[in-house]
Amino acid sequence: MAATALSFSGLVVVVFLLGLSARARAQEGQGRRAMVPAMFIFGDSLIDNGNNNNLPSLAKANYFPYGIDFQGGPTGRFSNGYTMVDTIAQLLGLPLIPAYSEVSGDGMRYGVNYASAAAGILDITGRNFVSRIPFNQQIRNFENTLDQISNSFGGGAAADVSQALAKCIFFIGMGSNDYLNNYLMPNYDTKNQYNAQQFADLLVQQYSQQLTRLYNLGARKFVVAGLGLMGCIPSILAQSNVGGCSDAVNQLVLPFNTNTKAMINNLSLNLPGARFSYIDVNAMFQDLLANARSYGFDVVNRGCCGIGRNRGQITCLPFQTPCPNRSQYVFWDAFHPTEAVNILFGKRAFSGNTDVVYPISVQQLATL
């Protein structure tokens, strides 16, 4: 990334110190003013958009039919099209946020996506996939971005950059892999060391420290996504003997969501100026599965692309032919929702009520 430092720094001044870049001002003239200067994204495969493409990783989605409904084709998104953060970015008036590993210069001015498939809160999570970028390293990558800004502008611009960062959205969606690719993996000893509550305590203790690191780097507006009904994804359904969602897996992750809500309340009290929106993905999924047809979905228990039972035993393979009626499927592959669900959830997170986004929506957070 060093080669992009100078070009990036000049552009950062434009967007951070003048408020809107040339494109954002053009959007304003069309009635589409960006609500925030930029969005910085941290997470896993649910929101990765290409950071694993050039890693020696088994967790990649840069091949067809991934991206079959995305204008840019297979980009590394684990979806047939948009992710949730793509939807939120557009609702904020921003362009799609580029991947850290694949962007340079001009493309960085509205923020960066650091998310990595197979990544977790814990560094050890996801090692079965060989290479991934854990949350701690994602934060270090963000720190490298800030170092480029500081080194290029010197101390005089530090206050201006700090003020601009305080207006940006920091989206964090972590934790899924700490269960799917750690606690529930037979080659990990984690479940023998911790019960469900103890593991949730361990995760959120570190999670709190990681979010505090982002705060100390200048973040003030946090959007934190909880975990969904992981016992209902095709991969888990394919292993279930009950013919439906695994209640054991759904119960396993509940303490994490409970702890995350408590963490947000605690950080709000102890980090001056920090504000949070918690996306209750669990509640969204419960509502979606209970009322699927009213949302336009006909298939809730198997992937659109995949092999085996529930199309979840082997995830979407290169050049596999996916289902034609993708907008009617809740799940795209063994682990991830379709674009239709990502758009639905992104819209609800942006402007939904406190039953799905707490204590304020992303839209309300952006306008503070």
Please characterize this protein's 3D structure.
The structure is a single chain. The protein is α/β, with parallel strands linked by helices and 368 residues long. Helix content is 40%, strand content 10%. The strands form 3 sheets. The protein has a 6-stranded mixed sheet. A two-stranded parallel ribbon has the order 6-9. Helix 3 (84-91) links the parallel strand 1 and strand 2. Helix 1 (5-17) crosses helix 4, helix 3 (84-91) crosses helix 12 (339-351) and helix 8 packs parallel to helix 10. The two termini are 32 Å apart.
Secondary structure blueprint with pairings:
Blueprint: H1 5-17, H2 22-29, E1 39-43, H3 84-91, E2 111-113, H4 135-153, H5 158-165, E3 169-173, H6 176-183, H7 190-193, H8 196-216, E4 221-225, H9 234-237, H10 247-270, E5 275-279, H11 281-290, E6 299-303, E7 306-307, E8 314-315, E9 329-331, H12 339-351, E10 357-358, H13 362-367
Parallel strand pairs: 1-2, 1-3, 3-4, 4-5, 6-9
Antiparallel strand pairs: 5-10, 7-8
Helix pairs in contact: 1-4, 3-12, 8-10
